[in-house]
Amino acid sequence: MLPRVLEPEVMDTPDEAIAYDAMDHAEVNGRFVADVMTAHGPPRGGEWLDVGTGTALIPIALCRAAQNVRLVAVDLAEYMLALARSNVERAGLTDRIRLDRVDAKGLTYPDGSFEAVLSNSIVHHVPDPLPALAEMARLVAPGGTLFVRDLARPPDLETLDRLVSAYAGSEPEHARSMFRDSLHAALAVEEVRDLIRSLGLPVGGVRMTSDRHWTLTWRRPH
To answer: CA-CA distance, 110 to 115, in Å (whole number)?
Structure first.
């Protein structure tokens, strides 16, 4: 198995934020939003939480897909949040998306605060993702949904190179390098299942959902 090589936990320089925002996330984000809506069903009027929101592209897409969804979107990177504010304002969604600077490992909200808790591509940034996953699960309201997706570390360099070529081959070199580093820093699906097992959540909720992503889906009982 390819060893995990960590990358910086927080992407917090202007260049990193601009490069991330400029990458073409439309297809991946669109699939994420569609899958969240399938897993959770129609929004029921409670707030949703997006953990590691980056530049808020997923909350914006969710608001466009569901007219009654409201979100708190959090990140630890100041420059990401600065671009997120601009994106939210430009989308005309400041009344439905609130941005907070919060560490995913210590989310400052009461238990069961959110109808749904979402996260896309934050786990591979965190050296020990267990506290962040525990916090996300803690915040899901009864009957609510936890939906976490991230990259899966490939088994070998040949597979990693193939994925970079397939999904970032037309991107600038910096973007290709970012994707390569992210794949190398990601968890393998069995590692994710071990974490979920330690939290007392069903490991069957973790599965590979593409050739490069795993997804965790869990519904808190009423």
So the answer is: 13
0.85 exceeded by the pTM? yes
The string of DSSP codes covering 145-184 is EEEEEEEB--SSHHHHHHHHHHHHTTS-HHHHHHHHHHHH
**Could you tell me which of 161, 197, 191, 196 has the C-alpha nearest to residue 179?**
161
Residues in contact with 188: Cβ distance below 8 Å, sequence separation at least 6, in sequence order: 1, 152, 153, 155
105: which DSSP letter? G
- Residue the block writes with tokens 């990601």: 186
Is the pLDDT reported for residue 15 higher than 80? no
Domains and CATH numbers, the chain: 14-219 (3.40.50.150)
Task: Round to the nearest angstrom and report the end-to-end CA distance of the chain.
Answer: 39
Q: What is the pLDDT of residues 57-114, one digit of tens each?
A: 999 999 999 999 999 999 999 989 999 999 999 999 999 999 999 999 999 999 999 9
- The CA distance from 105 to 52, in Å, is 11
Do the Cβ atoms of 101 and 81 come closer than 8 Å? Answer: yes
Q: Which two tokens stand for residue 49?
A: 């939480």
Given a contact cutoff of 8 angstroms between Cβ atoms, the answer to whether 163 and 211 are in contact is yes
Q: What is the C-alpha radius of gyration for the chain, rounded to an integer number of angstroms?
A: 16
pLDDT of residue 18: 62
For residue 7, what are the CA distances in angstroms to 86, 137, 141?
26, 24, 32
Distance of CA 25 to the CA centre of its chain: 12
